[in-house]
Amino acid sequence: xxxxxxxxxxxxxxxxAARRAGRNQAEITLxxxxxxxxxxxxxxxxxxxxxxxxxxxxxxxxxxxxxxxxLRDAEWHLIGHLQTNKALKAAELFDAVDAVDSVKLAERLNxxxxxxxxTLAVLIEINVGGEAAKSGVAPxxxxxxxxxxxxxxxxxxxxxxxxxxxxxxxxxEGSRPYFRQLRQIRDRITERVxxxxxxxxxxxxxxxxFEIAVEEEATCVRVGTAIFGSRR
Length: 232
Ligand SMILES: *Cc1c(COP(=O)(O)O)cnc(C)c1O
Known about the structure:
- The protein is of the alpha/beta class.
- The protein has a single domain (3-228), classed as TIM Barrel (Alpha-Beta Barrel), CATH 3.20.20.10.
- 40% of the residues lie in helices and 18% in strands.
- The chain is built from 9 helices and 8 strands.
- The chain has an 8-stranded parallel β-sheet.
- Bound molecules: pyridoxal-5'-phosphate (PLP).
- Pyridoxal-5'-phosphate is lined by residues 33, 35, 56, 79-80, 165, 206-207, 222-226.
């Protein structure tokens, strides 16, 4: 199947999951995760109507950004872990950083966004499974609390919501409790009405479990393999 056919199939499955959950599919953004795929594949997805893309490495995207700068209304998200020393490059290249997992990174990104003369949309990444190998802040950690409290100081960041990558399970249903947990964390933060904290975005769900994520109120699903094929 072509990239265009894959996108249309994924969109159909999102729509069906949204119907099951009584949701409006217009609330759900399909992000194409294009890491490891060349610029031509991204161009093909863009031609098929995709506008939001996720890349996980600053260096890898830098080369593609040059080749794709004519796609003016495409939106680029960094979805992988970011080292603080690459914050400036990331702020220059991306529209959004979806994996903020420390106060230090938020501080650096705010300074970097200021220098680049832009506002950066960001998500806080939560490590719902508590896996040592995964990035993200722990659900009830001081670090999360400090990020939430720090927001008023970072006027170049728009904290728009939460993102997570749950532990992998062969059965997509295995992701459901983690998606639910992320939603509950969002609800608790929303109730507190904190200054400069928006909780409109819930980024969760990948190729194997995005339908479950939609049922659990995802507003953004990050799909790589089911659109572009297996990564090499
Ligand atoms: C690679 C990646 C995805 C996409 O994974 P697929 O299983 O290929 O859909 C989504 N989110 C993050 C953070 C990723 O690194």
